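Action item from last week, closing it out:
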Amino acid sequence: DTLAYIKELGVDAIEIMPFNEFEGNESWGYNPSYYFAPDKYYGNPDQLKSFIQAAHQNGLAVIMDMVMNHAYGQNAMVQLYFDHTAGKPAENNPWFNRDYVGPYQWGYDWDHESTYTQEFLDRLNAYWIEEYHVDGYRFDFTKGFTNYAPGGNIDGFDQSRIDILKRMADEIWAVDPETYIILEHWGPPNEEQQLADYGMKMWRNRSYDFVPATTGAATGNFNNLGIESHVSYFDSHDERRIAEHALTEGLSNGSYNVKDPLVMYERVKMAAAFCFLFPGPKMIWQFDELGYDIDINFNGRVGNKPLPWGPGGLGYYEDSLRQYIYQAYQGILDVRRQIGAANLASAASDHQNFGAARRLSYDLPGGGIDLVAIGNFGLEPATIPPNFSQTGTWYDYFSGESLDVTQVDDPIELKAGEWHLYTTEQLSPGLPGVVEVYDNPASIEPYPFTKHDEITVTFDATRAWPGDTDGLIDADKVYFHSGVVLSHPDSTNWQNVVGTLTDDGLGLMTEVADNIWQITLIPKDYYGLEEDEEAFKLAMTFRDADNANVGLGFRNSAIYFNIESDRPFVTIEPPAFEIDDEITITFNARRGNRELVDADKVYIHSSVDLSNTTTPQNTAWQHTVGDWGQDNGIGQMTAVPGETDLWEITLVPKDYYGLNTGDIAYWLAAVFRNADGSKKGTGTPGPIENGFIHTNLDFFLQNQLTVAVDEPENDGNLRIFPNPTSGQLELALPGWSGDIAIEVWNPAGQL
């Protein structure tokens, strides 16, 4: 069933991690020992041959991951000529360098300048092609196939390395000219281009573009994803899963929270569409098609991870929502297949590759099937001109609906996370439920709010999911059934529930317009919260008087809204300081997106800006203190005694940042992270007390010692109050007369 599962997904080839003999009983295989025998983990030779034959019968090529950058100590060719005193290959080892070439070191370094190594490599490559009928190789870290390392560096252009790889390719193609050769090269572009022009494919990681887009930061871009010389992907065995990034680092706007699995599922489908509908070879890391979201460091980085199926597994195969991800991948790859990747490559394109709303637009020559994909990677509604290639009827692949286009560039509004695939021919009758647009029938004013705020919850019955009932449209009564989440921000465990599921008036809402219902409450009082008790979320569903019909959130789920902590996000005490003053910076992990709740350690990665500017994001990181991802104590904060998830660090700016006498620190820039840098504490971009969160999610706090950019020419006083404020602002100008021009700038430096 495994091969059928892969074939039905719509892929053309299987790349298998190194399966020649490796050290230990279980391994990823990048610690090779013997090269001409399959490791027992993959079965005996006949079983492996049968697997490859079965793959071919299903139309699937098999690509072998081959590690010839290095070998480990059990390798006989290492041991035949080994200096046990020095603990490294002997000077006269014909296959291995005595010392590693360059800074990247694993095992023992093959000498690819040696004719002995070259003969071994040629025999090895021919063996797996002729004996096992593999269809190609993905060579691990081919940048290491060199002895040229000026200054100990192998990152620069290296003609000798190009020659080594071309020679190897010639020998492979002499055995089978159709063999795929893929290089994990990580070389300079001009070197990779030469190798690509010779017929080899390069390995290209695009996680740095897809992860921020999927988590909601909407940064990065999709430029050059259609390059046909590179195998592009957004995660692999070397990267954290894109779904796990979304669940741990996802941003939020109101109730739209990328950390919500239901939201994540839709966004990883959109990411797949914008990756796989570019031409050129693409790679799917196993189980991304099910939204696999286990941390890469679970059970150790290379340790066994839970399986999606079977006893003790994750149950993905039985989860209809996970199966929708699989079906979305199927659909995306079906569109690619029906149109043809080669046709996409030759089409005229009009893409929008960056920003919140993005677009792929293909106009195929010769009357082929034209394609437009649009998607909103942002956190709020956005519009985008679709730039259809022609007027007339277009078809939505997943909904099955048709769209009559009269103006090709009329903007289309997309909700957060909404995406569509349109084609000029109907390629699908529609796949109900596979792709849905997030919508929340509930809203809260004001938002954000704390447990002490009076809030009004509004419910729109026309936008609610009905579950297995008739829903609440035109209901005579609607009740607000609700509770709070107290244990953890990721929990869905309701506590202090208010509502009895009877017609007793408890939670009864007021209809303020047709199918629009409201209730007003103060969370602390309504849910009986203690003064020192902090709630993370407000949880709710809606029902009619006898609970026969319900109104639910997206995909028939309960609805959650974050309850803000009463404490500020980040503070500096004192807020006005000179560089010789001792200051305490406090970080509240329970504010914002709450990535660092329950963290064992929190570090501050910080700097100060010595320029009097309104755009510190451009200049503040000149005096940085912190080693990202290192648990070395530099910037380590201390848990505030008697508090939970509250962290502080005390420092003297002059000493801490290495400043000079007379310097003024106008701004403090900060990022907060866990010990290994895999998580950082973030919030929604915008103002915070005495500063702002930039769209890059860095914090910028203004030293309150600085009250104006320029000294007023008048001797009178200028007073601004209340300060800080999120509401109305008053300016008092005693002693001033005549016309006065006042410019107001937001924290992002905009007038």
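Closing note: The longest strand covers residues 357-363.
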